[in-house]
Amino acid sequence: MVFGIISGVLSALLMSGSYIFSRAYFKKHTDPVQLAVYSQINMWFCGIIMLILSFIFMDVPVSKEFFLYLAGEAFSFLIAQTSFFMMLRHVEPSRTASLLGLKIMAIAVLTFLGGHAPNMVQWGAIVLCTIAAVGMN
Predict the structure, then answer these.
(1) What are the pLDDT digits (tens) for 56-88?
(2) Rounded to the nearest 5°, which phi and psi values hold at 120?
(3) DSSP-assigned states of every residue in 16-54
(4) Where are the beta strands (DSSP E) in 34-136?
(5) Which of 82, 74, 81, 128 is nearest to 102 (CA)?
(6) Which residue from 59, 93, 99, 130 has the fewest beta carbons nearer than 10 Å?
(7) What is the tens place of the pLDDT at every residue in 97-115?
């Protein structure tokens, strides 16, 4: 649980920095696909380190399904991030950042449709994130 909390806080800090750097990138360059490729390379590097740490400290099921899920997740994130960077060219970053809270709701619905129901505490967190995302806009 502590690992999840530390990872979440670190992710939030890094995401804040990424908005600053992506905005600076768009002041010099205009290609969102190129920025998405650069960011994916950085994330793959960090992701491989985290995957190795996960194998060391956790019992991760190594199976074909696990790696297919991991590849699907990476591809989905690439599409979403490229779309996000394309949107950043036209919309103020402070408006788009708050909408990222809605992805938690979308992931929860997809998880529920996939047969894994979140518990009541998780549903509460999902509802609060959705309210915060809508309220910030």
Answers:
(1) 888 877 788 888 888 888 888 788 778 877 887
(2) -65, -40
(3) HHHHHHHHHHHHH---HHHHHHHHHHHHHHHHHHHHHHH
(4) none
(5) 128
(6) 59
(7) 677 777 778 878 878 887 8
DSSP3 helix / strand / coil % (the chain, rounded to 5): 85, 0, 15
Closest CA to 80 of 54, 49, 106, 118: 106
Q: 1: pLDDT confidence band, cut at 50, 70 and 90? A: low
pLDDT in tens, 2-31: 877 787 788 777 777 777 777 778 778 878
Q: How far is CA 17 from CA 20, 21, 122, 136, in A?
A: 5, 6, 27, 19
Structural contact between residues 98 and 137, judged by C-beta atoms closer than 8 angstroms: yes
**What's the rounded Cα separation, in Å, for the pair 43 and 46?**
5
Please give the distance of CA 77 from its chain centroid, rounded to a whole number. 7
DSSP E strands in the chain: the ranges are none
Residue 20 CB partners (closer than 8 Å, separation 6+): none
